[in-house]
Recover the amino acids of this structure.
């Protein structure tokens, strides 16, 4: 349950108010009113599990109503919607603020030339080269060998 906590500014550690979190939840960026630092708004992955559970629980409740032929009334609909309300409330405590990454991602052509991956890539390219050579040989000597 440590995951359920209020979001904090990653720059100055200032804790956000629930209303603040609620208002920024749908946005992508947050500016701290105290230090003015920008941070990225991310949602904890736990929220994904909670949302799936909410859908399953309310789906089961609805299926139960149909199965037992219980007429849908407003209180019953509210009960069915309850998992969603819980999900919305919990989502406030699963908003995370992270310092924006200034460093840009390497361009597409640099990938695969990463020095940290070089042994793997050397092996990969060597294997590819072998294949190319083999296929080239195959093509250049089509029927002579037989
Ligand atoms: Zn701050």
């Amino acid at each position: 349950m440590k995951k359920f906590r209020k979001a904090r500014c990653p720059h100055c550690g200032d804790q956000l108010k629930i209303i603040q979190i609620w208002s920024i939840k749908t946005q992508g960026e947050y500016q701290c009113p105290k230090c003015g630092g920008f941070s990225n708004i991310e949602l904890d992955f736990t929220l994904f599990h909670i949302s799936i559970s909410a859908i399953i629980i309310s789906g089961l409740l609805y299926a139960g109503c149909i199965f037992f032929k219980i007429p849908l009334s407003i209180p019953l609909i509210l009960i069915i919607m309850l998992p969603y309300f819980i999900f919305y409330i919990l989502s406030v405590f699963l908003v995370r603020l992270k310092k924006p990454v200034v460093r840009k991602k390497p361009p597409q052509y640099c990938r695969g030339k990463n020095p940290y991956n070089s042994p793997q890539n050397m092996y990969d390219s060597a294997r590819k080269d072998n294949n190319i050579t083999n296929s080239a040989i195959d093509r250049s000597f089509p029927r002579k060998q037989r």
